[in-house]
Amino acid sequence: MDTSLHPPGRPRSQRANDAILKAALELLAEQKNLADVSVEAIAARAGVGKATIYRRWSCKGELLTAAVATLRPPLPEVGNESVRDDLVELVTQICRDMDSPLDMAIRGLLLSDTHPEIIDRIKRTVFAPREEAIHAVLRRGIASGELRPGLEPAVVQRMLVGGALAGRGSEPAGSHRAYAERLVDTVLDGARTAAGA
């Protein structure tokens, strides 16, 4: 577990924690690059001192990773017999994650080339576990014969996440699951074996 998301030591004021994380997210959404999101600016926005931040997170990278992680609720537990149903559950949550102007602003910021070490940390800590959840379902489908041998889980995962991103804003409100079902079915039509169809 990445301890930056749950800093060690005695419990601190939840109100201060919430204010700091909220300020960090607001600044991430407002700024054009990570260099402009400083600990000083976060502290000023949150109404706390820098020492209050550094008692919780040792550096800006840890703080920003924790802030972005607050936008990602836990993925649903999966393990059904159907690869299709498991993927629908996961992609539905991913569609919900993306249905936020704040999320989109932060995604854009993460494409910048400033502070690559922070961007890499956020991707490894926040995004990679969600990608791995999809990979695991796909690997299980290959092993069971539901999906064709030689299928590349990483490629299918990118198709699903890219499809979720492309569908953002184009679907009626509250239709995340219906869109996820169409997206998963469309992708899997090219991945199923005859026996798995």
What does this molecule look like?
It is a single chain. The chain has helices spanning 14-30, 39-46, 50-54, 60-69, 83-98, 101-109, 116-144, 153-166, 176-188. It is mainly alpha-helical. The mean pLDDT is 85.
Task: Output the keywords.
about 0% strand, Arc Repressor Mutant, subunit A, transcription cis-regulatory region binding, about 60% helix, Tet_transcr_reg_TetR-rel_C_sf, Tetracycline Repressor, domain 2, AcrR family transcriptional regulator, about 200 residues, mainly alpha, elongated, DNA-binding
CATH topology of the largest domain: Tetracycline Repressor, domain 2
CATH architecture name of the largest domain: Orthogonal Bundle
Fourth-level CATH superfamily of the largest domain: Tetracycline Repressor, domain 2
Number of helices: 9
User: Structural class given helices, strands, pairing?
Assistant: mainly alpha
The beta-strand count equals 0
Shape: elongated
* SSE ordering: HHHHHHHHH
| Rg, nearest Å | 19 Å
The major β-sheet equals: none
N- to C-terminal distance: 38 Å
Question: How much of the sequence is in beta strands?
Answer: under 5%
Stretches where pLDDT falls below 50 for ≥5 residues? Answer: none
Count of domain modules = 2
CATH class label of the largest domain: Mainly Alpha
Mean pLDDT: 85
Share of helical residues: 55-70%
Protein name: AcrR family transcriptional regulator
DNA-binding region: 38-57
GO molecular function: DNA-binding transcription factor activity; transcription cis-regulatory region binding
Pfam families: TetR_C_11, TetR_N
